[in-house]
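Chapter summary example.
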Amino acid sequence: METLNNQGDGKDIVLKKEERKMFYCKSCLAPSARPRIVFNSEGVCNACLHAEYKRKNTDWKKRWNEVEKLCDKYRRKDGSFDVIVPGSGGKDSSYVAWKMKHELGMHPLCITVASQMPTEIGKRNLENFIKAGFDHIMVSPDPESYRKLAKVGLIEEGQPKEPFISGITTIVVEFSIKLNIPFLMYGEQGEAEYGGSGNFDKKYFMDRAETVTYYFSGCESDRAVGKMGISDHDVKWWRFPSQEVLDKSGVLMAYWSYFEDWNPYEHYLFAKKHCGFQTLPTRSIGTYTNFAQLDDDLQDLHVYLMFLKFGFGRATSDACIDVRRGALDRKQALALVRRYDGEYPEQLIGKFVEYFRITRKEFDDVLDKFANKDVLEKVNGIWKLKFEPY
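The structure predicted for these 390 residues follows.
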């Protein structure tokens, strides 16, 4: 027997021998392999505990009053831009932008960082979002710099979307400073919503150090200089201003999920009604849903590598959200995860190899390097869990 240190209620969970490599939340299906997740003594993850706390203890009227006061502080009476809403025209950013403009009376400037491998449906959704009445800037970094940084992320960290993930902060913050619009409203605080650090359950913002630690995986862009021919100029968009600069400019990176209960499915329905949001005709690779993260083909590689590294993929992430919002019970979620999680993105492999300019063998070697062999094994050349989720 062994114990898992629990940061939830101060007790320990006793693990059976066969559960040492990975176990699952007793309420949803969040796995113990998820970075920074913790469980209480009953084996319930902190994301479920956070969801339960929100349902029973959060005064949402008080939270709404907080966001109203925050908007009052930054609202500009001359009608000039007073908040930046980053987003791609997807369901969540569309929802947040609409709420900021139509319910809180703000004048949002919406900024999109171009996808690395953009999809047609993503392009349509962004066009429809803009036509719904939003001012918008598209930032398109030099594709070659973008690709080289993505290749470093893929090979060194198994993070093919690393420059996009960091760029939606560094690039947007740079515009915030240059345009003197210090108020930024992002979507969900992932650490609180999905089972991460417990530092963000009861605050609506992140500082620089927290962003680097939790969203950049501790890595900043300068580490890539000199690799694969990457120059100082190549990383210009990905340099995060110092905390001193952020403080001087008054930048505030706020998260909508603090102010209103975060419900991605409701956002989808809302964006479909108000912003012309469209879905895939069938499900996304590796899951049962068709309405989330549709703008970039690299998302399918990103979530597949998540499965390889941690033993859970896109279906698990979606199912956990649906269990917490009451749309699925755990038995239903388990059936969907067993059917779809960790699906190999066969139809996109050729595109990935071409984008990263590597051979198929080099690509396969990267996947093999990051496969967690404690919980995965190869079956007919494809990595699979050694056991069924339970």
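To summarize the output: The radius of gyration is 21 Å.
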